[in-house]
Amino acid sequence: MIDCIRPDDWGQAGGVPGLRTEQVEDWLSRLASAGPAPGGGAAAAMHAAMAAALVEMVCNFTVGRPNYAEHESLVRRVCEEATELRRQAVELADADARAFTSVTEAYKLPKDSEHDRMTRSAAIQGALVMAAAVPVRTAEVASRVLELVERIIGRSNATVLSDLAVSASSAGAALASASVHVEVNRASINSPEVADRLGDAVARIEKAIESAHRISTDVRVRISRATPVAR
User: Fold this and answer.
1) Contact 170, 54 (CB under 8 A)
2) CA atoms within 13 A on the CB side of 102
């Protein structure tokens, strides 16, 4: 994680609507528009949110079922953790939109004088670091969702096993998308120290992507071998 950036620093500026108060279709229309935000980074966070929600769904199909009583305590804990991760992911989608808006606003600053150019450059660099921090955090959330998927494979309702595969795939999409957005911001950041830290973050994300593929494959193999089970 980029430790110099805190969630509070993302702020509420820019007049960007929040996902918690917006209809899905309205958000998708904004995503499809020529507006600066939301974009791919926000979509990455929503992949992570959907991955977490699917873990919650599997847990809710498991809790209270006699066949899985021995795992109920674990499944309840996983469900609580997934709920929190879903909340964080939705917040990150909003944060990404705000961060990208800050970048575009920084590029609009005047550059007539030397002082203007220095001020503009500093604002751009600061905004880029903020914009890179969000997908790093999105990747961390997606990685934690994958850990939850692994914890309940074989300990949750077998009739919704396929949804764990979709969760892992969605988390993998979040990771891959986040990696791209870290890289694109890293390419424009002048600080070697920050660039190095972001490079390390990308390397960790790539390893997590491999885990997502492995977990998804594992679940699909289990599905192919499974005996149909009634809910």
Assistant:
1) yes
2) 24
pLDDT > 90 fraction of the chain, expressed in percent and rounded? 77
Q: What is the pLDDT of residues 53-64, one digit of tens each?
A: 999 999 999 999
Q: With 60 as the cut, is the pLDDT of residue 116 above it?
A: yes
Confidence grade of residue 91 (pLDDT, cut at 50, 70, 90)? very high
Nearest 10 degrees: CA dihedral of 48, 50, 56, 62?
-120
Helix (H), strand (E) at residue 152:
helix 114-152
- Residue 20 exposed, middle or buried by CB count within 10 Å (0-12, 13-18, 19+): exposed
Q: What is the pLDDT of residue 35?
A: 81
Mean pLDDT of the chain: 88
DSSP E strands in the chain: the ranges are none
Query: Which one, of 81, 191, 183, lies nearest residue 136 by Cα?
Result: 183
pLDDT digits over 8-48, tens only? 443 343 444 566 667 888 889 988 998 878 889 999 999 99
Of 34, 40, 29, 141, nearest in space to 99 by CA: 40
Please, are residues 191 and 122 in contact by the beta-carbon 8 Å criterion?
no
Segment (H or E) for 131 = helix 114-152
How far, in Å, CA of 28 to CA of 145, rounded?
24
Q: How far is CA 35 from CA 39, 52, 104, 188, in A?
A: 9, 28, 11, 21
Dist CA 16 CA 21 (whole Å): 11
How many C-beta neighbours within 10 Å does residue 194 have? 20
pTM: 0.86
